[in-house]
Amino acid sequence: MADALLGPAEIRELAARLGVAPTKKLGQNFLHDPNTIRRIVAAAGLRPDDVALEVGPGLGSLTLGLVGAVRHVHAVEIDPRLAAALPETVPDAHLTVHNADALHVRAASFEPAPTMLVANLPYNVAVPVVLHLLAELPTLRGGLVMVQKEVADRLVAGPGSKVYGVPSVKLAWYAEARSAGKVPPAVFWPVPNVDSGLVAFSARTPAGDIDRSAVFAVVDAAFAQRRKTLRAALSGWAGGADRAEKLLVAAGISPQARGESLTVEQFAAIAGAAKQSPSGGKLSPTGAQAKEVDS
Ligand code: SAM
User: Fold this and answer.
1) Among candidates 199, 106, 204, which has minimal Cα distance to 152?
2) Mean pLDDT per 10-residue run, the chain (295 residues)?
3) 82 lines ligand 1 (CB under 6 A)
4) Fewest C-beta atoms under 10 Å: which of 24, 212, 217, 280?
């Protein structure tokens, strides 16, 4: 980690020199607390041979913490003024700055390939950014992201929790996630009106050979009407409530259950049952509880 991290005075001075007035639209709340930077870098569990991907380096607070901890840092910043100024604040040969929108970056832009995502994310696009990067960069072995506390709670929630939903299941497809603590508003400039939370995750191999898009279609349908039973919620997706029921039974899941009680593996089992019965033909057995059903 670099010796000199940025405190409140440095952050204000840097912003004034660059003529940067933080905007809400880009989620610009800059960290000005060296202890929080040290905490994030430590909690990320980085190895010296890791290649870190930082989304939204801003004025460089976290970037300064990352450059000494890994062998290379890719920093993706959408704001051209901040991207242009970063090499001056963080003069390190092992830093590559990408002036780009993280929602649209492609794997081919990153050499060496990123192994860890570490970021204080722009809160308005945090979930789509994390899911896009996990889909686009299978080289990521894990990461640590700071997001709005409420979003952190959703990302780490498990089945049965009130806040378990689409972001929880989709993140679980790629990774095991856990909370790494809360961060108070006072460590940011400007001070946000929400608490923040740290989410740590380790990539995992998705279960089975079902396409991610097929599984995510079931997840989206199940949570679009989360209060309904799966038989009802999945009827549009399945082409009728009867077929939804048959696919659920074939997957070993009660048609009366709700999406909020299912693991990502169970959503994959439903997609798997549909794959075996694409046009409503006889389902073949898929496990202990599978039944042959007519369509
Ligand atoms: N990492 C810095 C820190 O901790 O002080 C800044 C974090 S600030 C919460 C979010 C940063 O993400 C801002 O610098 C903002 O310009 C940038 N940003 C916003 N949307 C982005 C996007 N779609 N792609 C890349 N960067 C983005």
Assistant:
1) 199
2) 82 94 96 97 98 98 97 98 97 96 98 98 97 97 98 98 98 98 97 97 86 97 96 97 98 98 97 83 41 31
3) yes
4) 24
Task: Name beta bridge partners: 177.
Answer: 201
Which CATH architecture describes the domain 8-203? Answer: 3-Layer(aba) Sandwich (3.40)
Alpha-carbon span 226 to 233, nearest angstrom: 7
End-to-end Cα, the chain, rounded Å: 62
Structural contact between residues 122 and 57, judged by C-beta atoms closer than 8 angstroms: no
In angstroms, what is the span from residue 11 Cα to ligand 1's centroid? 15
pTM for this structure?
0.93
Give me ligand 1 centre to Cα 119, in Å: 9
Does the beta carbon of 56 sit less than 6 angstroms from any atom of ligand 1?
yes
Residue ranges covered by each domain of the chain? 8-203, 212-276
Q: Residue 77, annotated ligand binder? A: yes
Where does 212-276 sit in CATH, by number? Answer: 1.10.8.100
Q: Could you tell me the distance, in angstroms and rounded to a whole number, from the CA of residue 212 to the centre of ligand 1? A: 28
